[in-house]
């Protein structure tokens, strides 16, 4: 058969070319061996986000399987690299694996490339090897696979943060955003300073703001208010 001849019907399709990124050596080697046994071609196996970016540029794979937390910071380096790769190569299939739902860039990853050829799986919920392999193939074929726990947490995060506030508490927060002091808010709303303080305490609690100095918490509350307003 000439090199440019079409493949015969009996000829197996080419193996999916994979770049694997995982900082744990044992897990990385285990995944590489597993994928190899199921017919994937692991063209590179790396341990950090910079090496992942370089490997994809060199090998131009069909699929990236990456951990989310990798050196040097062990926060979201792998996820950020995945988002960058999808921005540069929207058709690249990417499956992110993690022990946790890392929300900072998860939505960006799932929104990238029109939401096609992307997956986000929690490691401790991957219990069936054949199902995991089928998931990878589904993503490569254009599908989207997201662990239900990831979906639940992202929906919680995207919910209007001010939905739990009363109408009066929204008024108080709007006045805080305009830079008014507690006394000025009390005068504007014809209530006591103590009532304003109570409203502010309720606002901070309902927005789940971390225990910190009051000035910083007020700033965080204002940011939540500004993010929730229509542009």
From TrEMBL:
Gene3D superfamilies: 3.40.50.2300. One of its GO terms (molecular function) is DNA binding. It comes from Actinorugispora endophytica. The keyword DNA-binding applies. InterPro entries: CheY-like_superfamily (IPR011006), NreC/VraR/RcsB-like_REC (IPR058245), Sig_transdc_resp-reg_receiver (IPR001789), Tscrpt_reg_LuxR_C (IPR000792), WalR-like (IPR039420). SUPFAM superfamilies: CheY-like. The keyword Ligase does not apply. PANTHER family: TRANSCRIPTIONAL REGULATORY PROTEIN NARL-RELATED (PTHR43214:SF24), TWO-COMPONENT RESPONSE REGULATOR (PTHR43214). Keywords: DNA-binding, Phosphoprotein, Transcription, Transcription regulation. GO terms for biological process: phosphorelay signal transduction system; regulation of DNA-templated transcription. Residues 17-138 form the Response regulatory domain. This is LuxR family two component transcriptional regulator. It holds the Pfam family Response_reg. Residues 158-229 form the HTH luxR-type domain. The lineage of its organism: Bacteria, Bacillati, Actinomycetota, Actinomycetes, Streptosporangiales. The modification 4-aspartylphosphate is found at residue 67.
């Amino acid at each position: 058969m000439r090199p440019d001849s079409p493949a015969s019907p009996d000829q197996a399709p080419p193996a999916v070319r994979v770049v694997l990124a995982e900082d744990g050596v044992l897990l990385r080697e285990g995944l590489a061996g597993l994928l190899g046994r199921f017919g994937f071609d692991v063209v590179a196996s790396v341990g950090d986000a910079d090496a992942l970016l370089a490997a994809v540029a060199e090998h131009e794979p069909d699929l990236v399987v990456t951990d989310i937390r990798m050196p040097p910071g062990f926060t979201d380096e792998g996820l950020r690299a995945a988002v960058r790769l999808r921005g540069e190569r929207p058709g690249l299939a990417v499956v992110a694996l993690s022990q946790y739902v890392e929300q900072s860039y998860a939505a960006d990853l799932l929104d990238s490339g029109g939401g096609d050829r992307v997956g986000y799986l929690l490691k401790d919920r991957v219990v069936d090897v054949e199902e995991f392999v089928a998931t990878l193939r589904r993503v490569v074929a254009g599908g989207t696979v997201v662990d239900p726990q990831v979906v639940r947490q992202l929906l919680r995060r995207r919910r209007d943060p001010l939905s739990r506030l009363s109408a009066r508490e929204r008024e108080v927060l709007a006045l805080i955003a305009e830079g008014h002091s507690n006394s000025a808010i009390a005068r504007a709303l014809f209530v006591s300073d103590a009532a304003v303080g109570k409203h502010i305490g309720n606002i901070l609690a309902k927005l789940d703001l971390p225990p910190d100095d009051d000035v910083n918490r007020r700033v965080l509350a204002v940011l939540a208010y500004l993010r929730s307003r229509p542009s």
